[in-house]
Known about the structure:
Blueprint: H1 2-28, E1 32-37, E2 42-47, H2 52-57, H3 68-77, H4 79-84, E3 89-93, H5 99-107, E4 113-118, E5 132-136, H6 142-149, E6 154-159, H7 165-175, E7 179-187, H8 209-220, H9 234-244, E8 247-253, E9 256-261, E10 272-274, E11 292-294
Helix pairs in contact: 8-9
Amino acid sequence: MRKKILLAILIVLVLMWFGEQKIIRINANANMKYLYDHFTGKEELVNTKGTFYETYMSHDHYVANKWEQYLHIYDKVLAPFIVANKPVNLLEIGVQNGGSLEVFADYLPKGSKITGIDIDEKCANLKFGKNINLIIGDGTDKKVIDKYFSKSKFDIIVDDGSHINEHVIKSFEELFPKLNYGGLYIVEDVHTSYWKNYYHGGYKKSTSTMEYFKNLIDSLNYLYIPNFPINTKLSDIIKLRKMNKEIASITFYDSVIIIEKYSKPKTRPFKNYYAGREGIIVSPESFERGRDINCNKKTKFEKFYR
């Protein structure tokens, strides 16, 4: 009986020691936190200092509402803006309680300007700091956009509005031209695109947000399409040609789509750079002149991406 009691005491002491070590490790570096991974069922010690996660979790004013994966996505895609440490202009469509505007204001570099637009007049009761501006209006209405943003340019645009397919598409077509080169257009909650009862949504539904942006993928490779089917609308071809000069990438995440704009307009096809002098299989002399360029120290580097 005594042995069992001693063994139980020993187990408790060991558990307490491990618990203390965990606390000590966290206290040794206040930025290190144990984060639970819902997929693996394990905890991992992670440095959260300066992350979007840290800013979001420490927010305590107006309510913000974002899915778990968004915290990681924002941390990843906004990293270049954080590293650059220069003020940026952000527009968010859909304000609701206004919490996300405050989170962006706290997270982005000092001096950044945050603008929110929402059709709900109750949002006018929200009170923000000097760097947050609120507009009451329809973010899908061209007249409203022209009225408030005729001379505006943004580095980041976030659509967290109605999530209605038609609205998302309208907002993108009106506001993407107002996105600075090197900027990001972020569409949240795209999962509603698959819901049949959610305003013309559905799997593979041509009117859905998801299918709209899937079709834009072809704009990335527009210059390589030798011909289009005879029934292709001329307006669709013109759109692809136009977007080929603007869209650098389209990234699909769970419920989020991110469209990156080139750092400058792409006015020519990309060139084929080759490096090295010796070609055992294919001789460099066989490369096409004009399109294929020997890459060396004198080669001009043009920046197309952030």
